């Protein structure tokens, strides 16, 4: 019974880490075009917090370091899910080891966006210093009004210095911190249940050998 409960919980946690866990919030939607502001009414917007969603928005923001981390997270979680369903403890061990690394990575992201220990969110660390892109949420967060200012010189319309963002309900760095905090919480719970399931599988293997 304990094995079944532990396996089912771990399967649920792995699925939750992969799929979206939407949080509804009421936001004021605004869209801004060059020279004209178009404002939408209040409506509920979903902010998913899981690995697949995070990968999509990191792609939109060209955040190459998080993209690599998210890709490995998705692969290992699928591996852990398969190991749990198919009674493969070695796969769950891989998931457990990676979970510890994943928690460390998300703690680093929190420190990066909160600028702890000399880190700065304005650096190009998340893009491997190959571009000046920032988090997608910087300009597209809940309630943000994005205004593109027409520059005096042609050909540099997409330069970030000519983009004004106002009215955000929550700053982009806190959205990134929330994403990482949710991942840490899920990972810690998954780590505990993974260790429990591994111990149950090992006990069953030992009992089968002694018979």
Describe the fold and architecture.
There is one protein chain. This protein is α+β, with helices and mostly antiparallel strands and 211 residues long. The chain is 55% helix and 15% strand. It has 6 helices and 4 strands, in the order H-E-E-H-H-H-H-E-E-H. It has helices at 2-18, 51-60, 64-85, 89-113, 137-140, 172-210; strands at 23-33, 36-47, 145-148, 163-166. The strands form 2 sheets. A two-stranded antiparallel sheet has the order 1-2. A two-stranded antiparallel ribbon has the order 3-4. Helix 3 (64-85) packs antiparallel against helix 4 (89-113).
Please tally the β strands and state the result: 4
Main beta-sheet strand count, sense and barrel state: 2 strands, antiparallel
Query: Averaged pLDDT, please?
Result: 76
Helix content: 55-70%
Question: What value does the Rg take, in angstroms?
Answer: 21 Å
The coarse silhouette is elongated
Contiguous runs where pLDDT drops below 50 for at least 5 residues: 20-48
Distance between the termini: 21 Å
In N-to-C order, the SSE pattern is HEEHHHHEEH
Percent strand equals: 5-15%
Tell me the strand order in the biggest sheet: 1-2
Structural class determined from secondary elements = alpha+beta
Please give the count of helices.
6
Brief write-up:
The chain is α+β, with helices and mostly antiparallel strands and 211 residues long. Helices cover 55% and strands 15% of the residues.
Write the layout of secondary structure elements.
Blueprint: H1 2-18, E1 23-33, E2 36-47, H2 51-60, H3 64-85, H4 89-113, H5 137-140, E3 145-148, E4 163-166, H6 172-210
Antiparallel strand pairs: 1-2, 3-4
């Amino acid at each position: 019974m304990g094995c079944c409960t532990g396996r089912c919980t771990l399967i649920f946690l792995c699925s939750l880490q992969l799929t979206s866990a939407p949080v509804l919030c009421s936001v004021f939607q605004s869209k801004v075009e060059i020279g004209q502001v178009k404002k939408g009414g209040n409506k509920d917007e979903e902010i998913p917090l899981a690995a697949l969603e995070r990968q999509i928005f990191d792609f939109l923001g060209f955040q190459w370091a998080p993209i690599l981390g998210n890709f490995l997270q998705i692969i290992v979680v699928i591996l852990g899910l398969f190991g749990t369903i198919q009674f493969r403890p070695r796969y769950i061990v891989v998931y457990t080891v990676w979970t510890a690394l994943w928690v460390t990575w998300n703690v680093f992201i929190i420190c990066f966006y909160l600028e702890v220990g000399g880190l700065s969110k304005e650096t190009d660390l998340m893009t491997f210093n190959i571009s000046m892109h920032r988090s997608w949420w910087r300009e597209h967060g809940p309630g943000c009004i994005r205004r593109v200012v027409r520059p005096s010189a042609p050909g540099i319309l997409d330069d970030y210095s000519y983009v004004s963002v106002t009215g955000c309900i929550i700053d982009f760095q806190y959205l990134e911190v929330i994403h990482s905090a949710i991942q840490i919480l899920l990972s810690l719970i998954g780590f505990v249940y993974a260790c429990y399931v591994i111990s149950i599988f090992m006990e069953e293997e030992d009992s089968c050998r002694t018979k």
